[in-house]
Amino acid sequence: MPPRNEPTTRTCIVTREALPSERLIRFVAAPDGAVVADLRRKLPGRGVWVTADATHVGAAERKRLFARGLGEEAKVEPGLAERVAGLLREAALSALSLARKAGTLVTGFAKVESALGEGKVVGVIHAAEAGGDGIAKLDAAARRRLGVAAADLPVIRIFPSRDLDLAFGRSNVIHAALLAGPASANALKRVRALAEFLGGDMGAGGAMPLESAAASVSAEIQGNT
């Protein structure tokens, strides 16, 4: 929910389309003039809004729309889209870590399978390098419990095991599951924001590390210049 008296829609400086504020990213100029993403929408000063995906952020940079909206002193260092992707990844992993601390996340194949059988799962997590056999078995467990509704169960597969290890304070995390609760809902929201910024769903990327995914997006943006 936006703070009281804050508009629920904002205008993207690229498309000039008015959108719900949660579908855009706010940018401000730091004291040194550098353009930075204000993901929490709390930084002081004048802000501009861009549709929350890497393509539109790249277009705003390429067309010098930040300088137009924030003032000519605003400076954009190369790689803005990759930096925003990095911030979104940190936010998503932090939210997953908080879900673990809140007790609404379990790790390990057996625990995930058991939680699926009990109908407690609101999202499944597989490391990017997870094997197809384990994924297929857990998918089957979800279908046994949920039937056709299993197709609507969010599946996250955009983080390599090393990132999940750090987020969960464990080693060799391959499979995990989010259980119902506010912390899990927030984690799903953060992961979805990252995936949408990179131009795919939460299972996009396969075994491709997010660094490579962001680089691919950057290359596409540069190719459109």
Quick tags:
alpha+beta, Hypothetical Cytosolic Protein, Chain: A, 2 domains, 44% helix, four-stranded mixed beta sheet, 9 strands, 225 residues, three-stranded antiparallel beta sheet, 16% strand, 8 helices, 60s Ribosomal Protein L30, Chain: A
Q: Mind explaining what this structure looks like?
A:
The chain is of the alpha+beta class. It folds into two domains: 9-77, YlxR-like (Hypothetical Cytosolic Protein, Chain: A), CATH 3.30.1230; 84-212, 60s Ribosomal Protein L30, Chain: A (2-Layer Sandwich), CATH 3.30.1330. It is 44% helix and 16% strand. The protein has eight helices and nine strands. The strands form three sheets. A four-stranded mixed β-sheet has the order 6-9-7-8, sandwiched between helices. Strands 4-3-5 form a three-stranded antiparallel β-sheet. A two-stranded antiparallel ribbon has the order 1-2. A hairpin with a 6-residue loop joins strand 1 and strand 2. Helix 1 packs antiparallel against helix 3 (80-101) and helix 3 (80-101) crosses helix 6 (161-168). The two termini are 36 Å apart. Mean pLDDT is 87; it is low at 205-222.
Short description:
This protein is α+β, with helices and mostly antiparallel strands and about 220 residues long. The longest helix is centred in the middle third of the chain and has 22 residues, at about 80-100. Helix 4 (about 110-115) packs parallel to helix 5 (about 130-145).
